[in-house]
From TrEMBL, chains A, B:
GO terms for molecular function: heme binding; molybdenum ion binding; molybdopterin cofactor binding; sulfite oxidase activity. It comes from Marinobacter algicola DG893. InterPro entries: Ig_E-set, MoCF_OxRdtse_dimer, Mopterin_OxRdtase_euk, OxRdtase_Mopterin-bd_dom, OxRdtase_Mopterin-bd_sf, TAT_signal. This is Putative sulfite oxidase protein. It holds the Pfam family Oxidored_molyb.
Amino acid sequence: MINNEGNTMSINDSPAIASQSPAEPVQMSRRRLLLGSAGAMASVSLLGLSPLAKAAEPKTLPDYVRWKNANDMIVHSANTIETQRGAVGSGVVTASDKLYVRNNLPAPDANIVADRDAWKITFEGVNSPQSLTLGDLKKIGVETVTTVLQCSGNGRAYYEHGPGGTQWGTGAAGCLIWTGVPLREVVAKLGGVKPGMNYITSTGGETLPEGLDPNTIMVERSVPVKALDQALLAWDMNDEPMPLAHGGPLRMVVPGYFGVNNVKYVDRVAFTEGQSDAKIQASGYRIRPIGEKGAPDQPSMWEMSVKSWVTAPLTTASQGKNLIYGVAFGGMNAVSKVEVSADGGETWKKARFLGPDMGRYAWRPFVVSMDLSAGDHRIVSRATDTDGNTQPPTRTENERGYGNTSWKDHGVTVTVS
Amino acid sequence: MINNEGNTMSINDSPAIASQSPAEPVQMSRRRLLLGSAGAMASVSLLGLSPLAKAAEPKTLPDYVRWKNANDMIVHSANTIETQRGAVGSGVVTASDKLYVRNNLPAPDANIVADRDAWKITFEGVNSPQSLTLGDLKKIGVETVTTVLQCSGNGRAYYEHGPGGTQWGTGAAGCLIWTGVPLREVVAKLGGVKPGMNYITSTGGETLPEGLDPNTIMVERSVPVKALDQALLAWDMNDEPMPLAHGGPLRMVVPGYFGVNNVKYVDRVAFTEGQSDAKIQASGYRIRPIGEKGAPDQPSMWEMSVKSWVTAPLTTASQGKNLIYGVAFGGMNAVSKVEVSADGGETWKKARFLGPDMGRYAWRPFVVSMDLSAGDHRIVSRATDTDGNTQPPTRTENERGYGNTSWKDHGVTVTVS
């Protein structure tokens, strides 16, 4: 399936779907290359690659995200665009123009954001089911919450068994301020959730390609109904009307949950007894052993876990005192501590958080001052959340390369001179 | 004095200087017009003006701030550009592309941000005076702080005696995230402040026009040395390298102090016994009775006071339940409470804050739900800080129209139908 940019797209992560389209090359693991200007060779050495590995041609930003800052982005494909690791800086909030993009289907036509308040959302599985417009929602209530948005496959590039899909490093993540109506307030207005409903099922308003079973391609995700306490139907991102590329006019935001559950262009919210039959829910985004197919009984990519990574320095540094920066978040809990090591994890030094605390679901930039001697240093960071969960040294191996939180994998080798 | 945009510029607020240049028209009070598209007639009625008042031609953004979002801005002149009142939304942080601009001198040539780390700053009045580069500063330490940046003349448009200068409404203010080195850490490195020094005096690196006494035109501001505890030499704004228009590569940020003290392109920081002799300090930015000239014994525009204003709705609303939005800040203290009235201050309803608390010096968006009946409503907001200071009903009259915090002045008249 080729979108109008001429780039390939992957509809979801299923090999069956992939075979219907000239999808992204598989077996890209350990060959992921930063396509930005200065980073290419540097990242080769970071990933322990032979300098003989060939760099792909840099790709330009597709039209619908031309407004992003090209220098901060790595264009994997028209629908998978990563933030450069070094672009985060001391960032409390990720500016929209450097936020990653991962669309499971091409973004709808821009006419859906021409009259935002007219956008319709159907609510089902409540005692008084009905359709409301975005204009209606704006009158019900409002809240603003800051969350980490992270793709399930962030960190996939570090898996060695070669999972297909986009070879994300650290940049399929950002920290955003969302404004919208709490879903629970809408539900209260609609008479409450019907008895026996276990899931919140959100459907994206993308136009589906013809000739395919909708279930194999539609973006419809179910999350446990307990997420009702935090879920937001958001119309603003970073105090701007939600950009089309990020789900405007309306996006489901489920704080602490992986990106895929934050359904874009949401036009239906249903409280359901079971999970959606859509492939993206039933077999996609499932944690399973290497070599196995996805199935509904495997863990779904819902709640995120504690994670951190260094954002500077990434390749070189000067001898002596250096400030080492990074970001850390707890997923479902606030992050409470970050430690940094410049010797690959032999010895650790506690970092301090930088800037305001944006709440439980946000990330926190961190910084630590370290004296570095000449030579190569493996710099790693390790975060702990308020429940005492600490980032593990190694990843959990799984077929699709999901949910990588290994602190070893996310380290960088910096040459100090 | 005409800059290369062909627009007039006001060098500082002194009538003496103004007479040397075709400065902004005086007697503009109550004739301030929103130059944006839809707002012009609306604001006329807000200000209680006759519809016969003539609107000026809309002005386009000058080249050095062409990257700003024109729809969010009101261009008063090349160096005075206001944020539209309604552009704030539910904004925890003000995006750079809608932040106001107020330059006392034209912005320097863009080559000063070509090699940011090479920028030199001289430190004086410390025990080991010396020059450091921005690159040096970045190794000393780092902190991130969120502050309200507000021009001393914000709200001048509401004064009735006709103070000259830019006729700012509410939009010469924003809330920004700054990252840089705490000044106190630099000073510690330079052996501490010399005994007997009472002020921190910061000098801007603008190129001064020839043929004028530098003291009459240079941007050099002194603040009490107690601000050393909070002051930051900032290189990032909203996690991007400081834009040239906002003082890049390096800006002095004095949390809680009016904008003018946050010296742009800072290239000298001196601890001094007395205040600067520069006109902008000695007689400019002084609170004095109407008709009097500025003098050093009058209060300087240093610490900001508690203030708030409504940002939506501004002109019209529908009968029934409405969410009323605004922003509030405490100046030197955190804001603790905001009340909103839809009957010009007869009865009040407590608003709630929206989104994360970004710290003592930040503003907080607020929202309150109110039932509005058909007819005209005067909507006003009134903030209180943690010390119990409440926004006053009326402004403090003063020659230059500085420091307006009157809740009456900042109200809007909304037609409900």
